[in-house]
Write a structure and sequence with these properties.
The complex is a heterotrimer of chains A (153), B (103) and C (271). Chain B has 103 residues and is mostly beta strands. Chain B has strands at 6-12, 15-21, 44-51, 54-61, 70-76, 83-90, 95-101. In chain B, the strands form two sheets. A four-stranded antiparallel sheet of chain B has the order 4-3-6-7, with no helix packed on it. In chain B, strand 6 (83-90) and strand 7 (95-101) form a beta hairpin. Chain B is elongated and about 55 Å long. Chain C has 271 residues and is mainly alpha-helical. Chain C is built from eleven helices and seven strands. The longest helix of chain C is centred in the N-terminal third of the chain and has 20 residues, at 22-41. Chain C starts with a helix and ends with a strand. Classes of the chains: A alpha+beta (153), B mainly beta (103), C mainly alpha (271).
């Protein structure tokens, strides 16, 4: 079977099944187990605990990237970047959201500590970037204001 | 069946930058429909990106990731013409894999 | 809240405001909003819809099992490049001035054999309900990206529609005695933090028209110009016109005429 053709023409669950059967990907290995406890946690403290991060040290070598003001809370471009060596995990937390954790990423060796995404924010809030480097957790914060827009010309 | 992703991958000075757009509702489970009934949560939970056979990123999403998720990241290596594949699965068990050629 | 606490808060608020004068603060806010919009521009979810629209355009569908590839959007059958930028326009075969959406529906009816009421039932999407029209218009619009809007409205029927559109633009109506011009007829107006374009000038109309169809992040969907204008009417508390109503095509003709010469940047993305 030609893998590239499969990838081009196939899709969805059927494709995953084919790939799994062919031993190309193994479910549960290619896709890590979702950390329910961390995503269900409400407060920052509970989320950090569920992530095994304890109380991370503030670091100037970690940055939350994003605008100071978002025109709409439904789509707020945010990211995490860090200049620390050996970063293996990054996460984005939004203090005032119903569940603080928005997303987390495992970075294999060779992947840069710089991941950008877009998140929903219910209101103006501190946004935290959490980074695990050399087995230790570090954090940075930035307040992002969410405004009420007009009609959306 | 989920719609295709849009994946762009470009190599510059030995680093490949990958940008992914995923077609997904990312319903939070906290909204109500017109009749006042809760719209059930429906969101991508896990995601992974591979360059060839090597995993270059693994992600976990919560409901706070925006509708039609966007993701950008960079990894060392990758050459023009090689493939980057991205897979996701959601809390309803739907999943999808798409790939792009590195430019 | 006790008085002393209130006083402290008010003092603190003033103290925080002192370093920036009001215009400087406005400029900083504008800068940050520009940064926000820039961050969204790369990776527009409308691109996903454009891909779907492209496939729908070429797919054989409907009772006549035909694609839309022979649809004449004003530049000849199947000619898509720049077609959106030159609409609305007078069509001899229907004897009407048509915008992209009314012409598209005409093609779906005449070429594919669909019933108009069926294809327009889902003229806009809702979560869990896709709209073929939205996808097709996004695709057609993207084929005019980088091209100049060209609606001189020189044909007498087009001139008449532009005039009607102008009349509607200035007409005060509805329970609030509102007109389009109240918000969009002067320079330097804004609602909350959002600037309101002066649609009577080339610059103002151009800035508004060049980015549609546009992905609205607040809606999680691409909006077509029909949807934009019909929703403007709703927001002005006017009775909402029907989809593809002449009044909307007339407004579009007026606005595209004002915007003529502006380079299209579509699909756009905005709040």
């Amino acid at each position: 079977m030609n893998r590239r053709n499969v990838l081009k023409t196939g899709s969805g669950a059927a494709l995953m099944g084919v790939l799994a059967a062919a031993g190309i990907i193994r479910p549960g290995l290619a896709l890590a187990d979702w950390n329910k406890a961390a995503f269900d946690a409400k407060s920052m403290a509970d989320t950090l605990k569920a992530l095994g991060a304890g109380s991370p040290a503030d670091s100037k070598d970690v940055q939350v990237t994003g605008p100071d003001i978002a025109e709409n809370g439904a789509v707020v471009p945010v990211g995490v970047s860090s200049t620390l060596p050996n970063v293996t995990m990054v996460a984005i937390l939004i203090e005032k959201n119903p569940n603080a954790l928005a997303a987390s990423f495992v970075l294999p060796e060779g992947t840069e500590a710089n991941v950008q995404t877009r998140v929903k924010m219910g209101q103006t809030s501190n946004v935290y970037a959490l980074v695990k480097a050399d087995g230790k957790f570090y954090m940075a914060t930035k307040e992002i204001k969410v405004t009420l827009g007009g009609c959306g010309g | 069946m989920a719609n295709p992703m849009k994946i762009r991958a470009a190599n510059k000075d030995g680093v490949t930058e990958v940008k992914v757009l995923i077609s997904h509702e990312m319903e939070t489970g906290q909204r109500k429909d017109a009749n006042g009934a809760i719209i059930p949560a429906w969101f991508i939970t896990e995601l992974s990106a591979k360059h060839g056979d090597k995993v270059v990123l693994q992600g976990e999403f919560g409901t706070a990731v925006s509708k039609n998720p966007y993701l950008a990241f960079k990894f060392k290596g990758g050459a023009k013409g090689e493939k980057v594949a991205v897979s996701w699965k959601d809390n309803k068990g739907d999943s999808r894999t798409d790939e792009a050629t590195i430019a | 809240m006790n008085r002393r606490l209130l006083q402290t808060l008010v003092t603190a608020a003033f103290a925080a405001a002192v370093p920036l004068t009001a215009p400087a603060q406005d400029a900083k806010v504008a800068d940050e909003l520009a940064k926000y919009r820039e961050a969204l521009a790369d990776g527009n979810p409308a691109d996903l819809l454009e891909v779907r629209g492209e496939a729908l355009w070429a797919e054989k569908r409907g009772p006549k099992n035909a694609s839309l590839e022979q649809c004449d959007l004003g530049l000849g059958p199947g000619k898509l490049e720049g077609a959106y930028a030159a609409l609305p326009k007078y069509f001899k075969d229907t004897g009407k001035v048509m915008d992209v959406e009314s012409r598209l529906v005409h093609c779906m009816v005449t070429l594919q054999g669909f019933k108009a009421e069926d294809v327009t039932k889902n003229w806009y999407s809702k979560p869990g309900r896709e709209s073929d029209i939205e996808a097709l218009v996004t695709f057609i619009g993207a084929r005019s990206n980088g091209m100049k809007i060209a609606v001189p409205a020189t044909h007498p029927e087009e001139a008449k529609m532009a005039k009607m559109g102008e009349y509607i633009f200035y007409r005060r109506s509805g329970p609030q005695d509102f007109s389009c011009a109240i918000c969009h007829g002067q320079e330097g107006k804004r609602i909350r933090l959002q600037e309101l374009g002066n649609l009577t000038t080339k610059d103002g109309a151009g800035t508004a028209m060049k980015t549609w169809p546009s992905y609205r992040v607040s809606q999680g969907a691409v909006w077509t110009m029909q949807r934009r204008l019909i929703d403007c009417m709703r927001q002005a508390r006017w009775p909402e016109p029907n989809y593809l109503a002449d009044s909307i095509v007339a407004l579009e003709t007026f606005l595209q005429k004002n915007a003529t010469g502006t380079v299209m940047e579509t699909p756009g993305i905005k709040r």
